[in-house]
Amino acid sequence: MGANDALLRLLYAGVSREEDVLRPSRESFHAYVRNTRPTFKLNWFHRVLADTMQQFYLDVKAGKQPRLMIFAPPRHTKSDTASRCFPAWVFGQDPRINFIACSYSSSLAHRMNRDVQRIMDDPLYREIFPDTRLNTENVATLSGKPLRNSDIFEIVDHLGSYRSAGVGGGIMGQGFDIGLIDDPIADAEAANSEVIRQGIWEWYQTTFYTRQSEMAGIVLIMTRWNVDDLAGRLLQEMLIGGDQWNVVSFPAIAEQDEEFRKAGEALQPERFDVDRLRAIERTLGSYAYSSMYQQRPGPKGGTIFKRDYWQYWKVLPQLEETIISVDCAFKDLKTSDYVAIQVWARKGANKYLVRRTREQLGFSATVAAIKSTHALFPHCEAILIEDKANGPAVVETLHSILPGVIAINPEGGKVARAYAMQGEQEAGNIILPDASVDPNIEIFLGEVSSFPAVAHDDETDAMTQAINWFRNREGAYGMIEFARRQSELINAQRKRAA
What is the pLDDT of residues 190-205, one digit of tens each? Predict the structure, then answer.
């Protein structure tokens, strides 16, 4: 009986391992992470992240071409889960999948490549997914054997592959079913460089995006750095009909009650508790902390212009005075600023944004757009055009065509002009079109709420130009009215004296 008991225990142990470890790891990405990364301090965050990644994979297989953004603070194991464990698990599900994985530098991308290989070489992985194997040799060039090096590896007896590259580098000659971009920005210096941000954007559009297959899904995993980072630009594109992204954001400290934590609680208190996070905030400053740890570039609610202070209209009242305010650009290149054309109107102390246009336009197109706007509002009192960029030439062209064209040479800096109208915004005197009237008003709000830490400030400039014009006019009206009353008083006194 003793020998039989020992045999039964071994048999049951094998069944238990299959039921408790191997099968769950095949069926659930979260179970796979839990069973293969025993040193991870897993909490609800990892389950949500893993379940989100698994659904993304299922959507790829279903041909839905999913787009997923994952935002999380530094050092919270997002890359370990999403960029190292996930590709290995996917290859176990389907060894025909083609990955392209990119990060801010080729050295980091190659290191992640090697990390994925090490996971797939682990005996436990081979036990979970016995049909998914890598070449045991390092193979750098085509030789009839599956490739395996720090640039690319191929799955033995299958068509699947994993290609790594630095953001900005070439990835021609290969496509992807799953494109993975992990932290495309290296540091604050890169994040604050418009040249680098523009380079990343052009690489995404012309190099990375063109390599996708007909079923391809894209995952962007990053810590936010700047309102104009890659994620920020993609979110702006989404608002005007671009790819629609599923955004999953994990602030380091909850700003409101969530499903798994209350407002004020840390994301991974066992790693970074609230006291530690507040110390980090004091070191970094509010802007950097808000971006990197709360995934919200810019302080909550806005910088100069707080979101909570904007008022909105659905039906305009009877208006007293209407103007057109224009902020011009130099050229209609992709790297140019936008031309902002706004129609503002006043009733009493309230100023209403009636209409807005924001496009990258050259000189002729700018002139045509202003003429078209004036045709819609032919009784406007003035057309204000900032005397910079194409502005002087636009003013010269339109001066003899349209009435009320005025070249504005703004006084003070952009920030000073914004602060000059801050009080009116806080008092509720600046009234914007409701989203039911202007479906793209969020683009305006995104820019002005993040100003001055924003790549493009054209709408902000056009707005402050208009509001300050109204204020100066009100001041002039006030002086005229004061002079009139003083004259009436003097005349009355003279009559009494006579």
Answer: 887 888 989 999 999 9
Asked, for residue 458, whether it belongs to a domain, the answer is yes
Residues in CB range of 155: below 8 A, 6 or more apart: 91, 95, 96, 132, 133, 134, 146, 161
pLDDT confidence of 140, banded at 50, 70, 90? low
Which domain-ending residue is among 206, 225, 250?
Answer: 250
**Is 350 within the bounds of a domain?**
yes
Phi, psi (5° rounding) for residue 455?
Answer: -70, -40
Looking at the DSSP assignment, which residues form a beta bridge with residue 282?
Answer: none
At 440, list the tokens: 């793209």
Q: Is the dihedral of CA 260, 266, 271, 273 positive or negative?
A: negative
Query: Looking at residue 225, what DSSP letter applies?
Result: -
Six token digits for residue 163: 């290609």
Q: Do 318 and 243 fall into the same domain?
A: no
Whether the pLDDT of residue 17 is over 70: the answer is: yes
Sheet (strand 321-327) strand order: 311-313, 430-433, 350-359, 339-347, 321-327, 382-386, 405-408
Question: Mean pLDDT throughout 398-414?
Answer: 86
Q: Are residues 173 and 242 located together in one domain of the fold?
A: yes
The verdict on 202 and 343 lying in the same domain is no
Measured on CA atoms in the order 248, 254, 260, 265, is the torsion positive or negative?
positive
Assess if residue 489 is contained within a domain: no
The enclosing H or E element of 207 equals none
Whether residue 457 sits in one domain with residue 337: yes
Domain with residue 107: its CATH number is: 3.40.50.300
User: Is the torsion defined by CA of 325, 329, 330, 333 positive or negative?
Assistant: negative
Q: Is there a domain that residue 255 lies in?
A: no
Q: Residue 460 belongs to what domain range?
A: 307-480
pLDDT digits (tens, 9 = 90+) for 445-485: 888 887 876 667 899 999 999 998 998 875 544 444 444 45
- Tell me: do 243 and 365 sit in the same domain: no
User: End of a domain among 207, 223, 250?
Assistant: 250
- Tens digits of residue pLDDT in 226-270: 888 999 899 988 888 899 999 999 999 998 888 999 989 999 998
Q: How many domains does the chain have?
A: 2
Burial 319-348 (b: 16+ CB within 10 A, else e): eebbbbbbbbbeebeeebbbbbbbbbbbee
- What six digits make up the tokens of 177? 């079913």
Mean pLDDT of 302-326: 90
How many whole angstroms separate alpha carbon 498 and alpha carbon 495? 5
